[in-house]
């Protein structure tokens, strides 16, 4: 067994070496970053673009299929894929064509277009829910679902799981504490009292869930089918079925946020596991990377929505934004659903992801490293713990900044990009077998440096 101190010491040495190499390879990206810093705080249009392991971010000039090219002319195999926004590859040809054609006909009009009926039919057929609404982001969709759930049930509380992620929804930025929950300390300018009606419990804990629902005041359980943003935490057998059963018994509604777990199959995790949520949210990749999201719901929910609409005074409902369901997004969504998110694409993605997981598991076990590999559809994650985590707390405990930074930098300098958050890898239909083999080989070489098998940093 390797000493964690030795692993981290070699990782820090590798970071120093790879940081110097990165600086020397990317003068154009550095120059653009410095120029941008004059008008953008931190030099980027969103501060989280600095979360990469690099001293400054790459400036991307082209993204196509499973590759991106930077301002210095260097090309990378991309296993980040925009953190899922480009899950089906960068700029899929059918989506790009649909966008170009629709752009010449109009972008937005605050009215439905010719694609509206077809997209509704496609969503209902694919996901098994008869009714749908459009938003610009999954954050907006989740906010809308929470509001509808509270209106329908006339209950105040939202239940989430520790380690969840549902976009920019204030009610979900909560940490589990001994006596309830508190706003995440990292949150900038949290809305006062936003989490006062939020309950946070451990994922995979049916006993805690039953206790939390016993008060009869929970409007909605909002959850990912598997936690994905704190490190991947898979549901234990029967857990999601228990969530559904306990919710129905207590009169609580359930929303599955499939923005990340859409990587499991054409109908997402819910369809593949015969789950029947009241609401379902899909964001990021649903329109091929163009900003758009959807939320679907049952006929019973739609009937309740009609009753609420009929009873409320006229005026702004607080749900929906001007660009939601715009003409351009609907055209892109139709093309993505029809021609990109196909069964053939999923077979390619999931088959290669399975191969990647096998290669990484072999590299870890052959070196007797105390790590594990988790896969969910086309998502693969290297976890710095011997067993896959069962809760958000276990996933956080497995994070190791030194090892992650060294691994990500060494791969980036060799032409492979991972998602900057933990060690998540996405496989697209455009990813090739040789891309997977290359990533696995480079990972194994980094492992050898960490363990001292490669004496370059010993």
From TrEMBL:
What keywords were assigned to this record?
Pyridoxal phosphate
Q: Name one GO molecular function term.
A: transaminase activity
Required co-factor? pyridoxal 5'-phosphate
Q: Which Pfam families match?
A: Aminotran_3
Task: Show which residues constitute the signal peptide.
Answer: none
- For this protein, the parts annotated as crossing the membrane are none
Q: Which residues form a coiled coil?
A: none
Which protein family is named in the record?
A: Belongs to the class-III pyridoxal-phosphate-dependent aminotransferase family.
**PANTHER family documented for this protein:** GLUTAMATE-1-SEMIALDEHYDE 2,1-AMINOMUTASE, GLUTAMATE-1-SEMIALDEHYDE 2,1-AMINOMUTASE 1, CHLOROPLASTIC-RELATED
Q: What protein does this entry describe?
A: Glutamate-1-semialdehyde 2,1-aminomutase
Q: Which organism is it from?
A: Kaistia soli DSM 19436
